[in-house]
Amino acid sequence: MYDDLSLEHFMSGLKKRTPGEKEFHQAVYEVAESVIPFILEHTRYRQAGIIQRMTEPDRTIIFRVNWEDDEGHIRVNRGYRVQFNNSIGPYKGGIRFHPSVNLSILKFLGFEQTFKNSLTTLPMGAGKGGSDFNPKGKSDREVMRFCQAFMTELFHHIGPNTDVPAGDIGVGAREISYMFGQYKRLRHEFTGVLTGKAIEFGGSLIRTEATGYGNAYFMENMLNHHNDSIKGKTCVVSGSGNVATYCTEKINHLGGKVVTLSDSSGFIYDKDGIDAEKLAWVINLKTVKRGRISEYAKHFGAEYHKGKRPWGVPCDLAFPCATQNELGEDDAKTLVANGCKAVSEGANMPTTVEAIHVLLENKLLYGPGKAANAGGVAVSGLEMTQNSIRMAWTSEELEQKLKDIMQNIHNNCAKWGKEGDFTNYVKGANIAGFIKVADAMLAYGVA
Ligand code: NDP
Q1: Per residue in 296-330, pLDDT tens?
Q2: Which atom of ligand 1 is nearest to the CA of 374?
Q3: Checking DSSP bridges between strand 317-319 and strand 342-344, what pairing results, if any?
Q4: Model-level pTM greater than 0.85?
Q5: Strand runs (DSSP E) across 160-308, as ranges?
Q6: Is residue 394 assigned to a domain?
Q7: Number of domains the chain contains
Q8: Alpha-carbon dihedral of residues 144, 167, 290, 270, nearest 10 degrees?
Q9: CATH number of the domain to which 164 belongs
């Protein structure tokens, strides 16, 4: 069965088994490109069919979610939880509420999570879930009713030692609180079953900031490793949600200048830089007023580019922090032509396979999301530990742990991705993430 383990043969088998799941195919291809040559050199992984097993989720749960809107109409959405791999710990990964959510997107995210969680060195397996529910434009009460209905099914499948979900696009502190409240009500118990909780009921300090901070640290680590740093660099950031805003905050702390932010309607360009005061305004706009980034341009007199992405703005460093496939081949060529030196992904799979090839061929430092945005799930892992030992660490302690984890992830990727003077962080992240999970699977036998 495993005689021909060429990339083409493997991918054509996967596509036959999972027709139409294009984001999932893309995520697997990106990993298989670097992991298959490694497997061919290590026959124990090949004989045990590890890559074939790793690309099939342990199980997928799909369910109907009924809820009532403010006008009394009954609405129906679809809920999912993809429990991908629990070889090194309970399933762990976010919940996404966005109209684009489908099985392919959640499988790509769950698959990526396997490698990301492994890279953190914490004992966390991988999962991902969500719904095609769109929280935008809904009242607080509607969001609450939806979250409660969603958890009424999901609670059967999760638990502190089974599966511990967190937030993602469209799921922030408000949604996690509604879901945690419902879980507690249904189970009659208070346990650390979700991460990203508020501080008052078991949340961890700096969890909100962790993904964005971690991404800026990963960029700093890549640059330091090549005798450079963020200080004085012009940075282009996409998105204006959780990851984008806290990535901007840490870039500012490290002495860089962020000149763009975006949302799904367009981007703003502020040549003077988005300082702490302007950033606080954006965070309030996005988390309290739930407004559009175009309002920034009006408020601060910056440029607004409707329907466009920010990659044409000349920069030294780029940080895609919005969503999947937001940076294509032409964008990558533009970044290269404008002299960009490095790209670090806050979002999951924001760069297409073709664009990754352009970046690597031109020897840019490129930090893939599974390594560069692992700070969020790492602090989620620390939240689980704090819940288990019933203690809370301080912000300073947690930020030091986050910094150390990001440095370790970087060093591990650099070790496996060394190609002469160049560091191929894609190869490094894929192989380093693969080994730990693969070895655990080998140890269990055919299980
Ligand atoms: P948020 O919901 O807080 O923000 C998402 C941002 O991306 C918003 O600015 C949103 O704009 C924009 N966006 C969403 N969809 C699109 C689209 N189709 N086209 C253009 N822009 C879009 O999410 P997060 O910041 O939490 O997540 C951002 C990315 O980071 C995702 O890829 C997520 O998987 C990843 N990630 C998040 C982690 C976390 O801890 N939160 C952890 C690791 C990865 P708009 O408001 O117009 O929709």
Answers
A1: 999 999 999 999 999 999 999 999 999 999 999 99
A2: 43
A3: parallel
A4: yes
A5: 163-166, 234-237, 257-263, 266-269, 303-306
A6: no
A7: 3
A8: 180
A9: 3.40.50.10860
